[in-house]
Amino acid sequence: MKPRSIRYCYRDPLSEIWIAAAHKIGLRVERTADAFAHSDGSGGLHIATEEHLDADDCLAQMIFHELCHSLVEGPEAFDIPDWGLDNRHAEDHFREHAALRVQATLSGRVGLREVLGPTTDFRAFYDALGLDALADTRDESTALAKHALRRAGTNPWWPHLGRALDATANIITEAAKWAAPSETPVLYRLRREPIPLHATGLPGRSTSLPETCGDCAWRTQAGHCHQADSLVEVTLPGCERFEAPFDCQDCGACCRSAYHSVTITEGDAVEKLHPALLVVHENYTELRREGDHCAALITEGARHRCAIYDDRPTCCRDFTNGEQHCVTARRRLGYSL
Ligand code: SF4
Ligand code: SF4
Fold first, then answer.
1. Which residue intervals of 114-199 are DSSP H helices?
2. Residues 154-199: pLDDT tens digits?
3. In the chain, where are the structural domains located?
4. How far apart are CA 237 and CA 206, in angstroms?
5. Is the separation of the CB atoms in 227 and 218 below 8 Å?
6. CA 236, CA 295: separation in Å to the nearest integer?
7. Residues enclosing ligand 1, CB less than 6 A?
8. How many angstroms does the Cα of residue 322 sit away from the middle of ligand 2?
9. What does the pLDDT look like over 42-97, one tens digit per residue?
10. 299-321 as b/e, with b when 16 or more CB fall inside 10 Å?
């Protein structure tokens, strides 16, 4: 009998999706025996060959994890080996934590938080993240993660990352129906239902979280949401951008990122009460600055508060908590999505 000729090859569909997504984003996936996962700073993403992987490793997840690092570190890090990170040094751990918050948030949207979970030594941190992986606003990695999630909607990641996640979710959903019970359960079985988009079109939030738009900092009394730029009912479940009402005395984002000069309006109490803070010019008076912020702003750890809040000038009073300028200031510092 004439031997058959082999004209096609089989490739794992998930691997294909993520190799292609990485390529569209600007990264070339290469398999190696020399590293677990390593970006070379020249567009190469080197991932260990199959025989060096653990039973719960998969190429798709490993590429996705590296893409989450790229989101945290930004486009300039494409030219730096390993995104400029060195996990042997504790000072880089918060950047790893930020990537894991991004990984949990993006994969959670499509119900793959466990299926596409990291297989590194940081897994315990990932598993300990609550349903809202961005909830811990005191942790500096959360601000980095929020910056990264905003990047996910921009070039070169958008739309490839989202499409790869959707395609992966579709395949896993079907594969999970066929996965046979086994002594070591198949990862597919950990798939959850995707989180539906919010009624406003923003990414949704786990339905297990109780807060509604009525509890959210971004909804005005008139019912307008400054994140969605639309009216929202009090009883609507919160979206991914839900935030509890802010305490300006714990934030100070506008004092650090919105003003270059805090000018005094005639009659402002600060003129009489805090003369040491004033700088008088020929045509106007302003508050003294220290570095890149107003001298009245006091920083205590992660907390930034105004030392003269009750006597603050008119221009600061006009900057309303929860309004559009507040969103902009908080976004600049990574406080809000
Ligand atoms: S940002 Fe807040 S108010 Fe706006 S849709 Fe989301 S949860 Fe509702
Ligand atoms: S107005 Fe907004 S940005 Fe300014 S301190 Fe208050 S919460 Fe922060």
1. 123-128, 140-151, 160-178
2. 999 999 999 999 999 999 999 999 988 888 889 988 999 999 999 9
3. 13-161, 248-320
4. 9
5. yes
6. 41
7. 198, 200, 202, 213, 216, 218-219, 225, 227-228, 232, 238-239, 241-242
8. 7
9. 999 999 999 999 999 999 999 999 999 999 999 999 999 999 998 778 888 999 99
10. eeeeebbbebeebbbebbeebee
- pTM for the predicted model, two decimal places: 0.92
Listed in sequence order, the residues at least 6 apart from 141 whose beta carbon sits closer than 8 Å to its beta carbon are 94, 95, 97, 98, 101
User: Which atom of ligand 1 lies at the shortest distance from residue 198's CA?
Assistant: 5
Ligand 1 centre and the CA of 200: distance in Å? 8
Contact 104, 132 (CB under 8 A): no
Q: What is the residue with the minimal CA distance to atom 1 of ligand 2?
A: 321
Q: How many angstroms separate the CA atoms of 297 and 294, rounded?
A: 6
Q: Of the residues 132, 149, 200, which should be mutated to test ligand 1's pocket, given the most ligand atoms within 8 Å of the CB?
A: 200
The pair of structure tokens assigned to 24 is: 């569209």
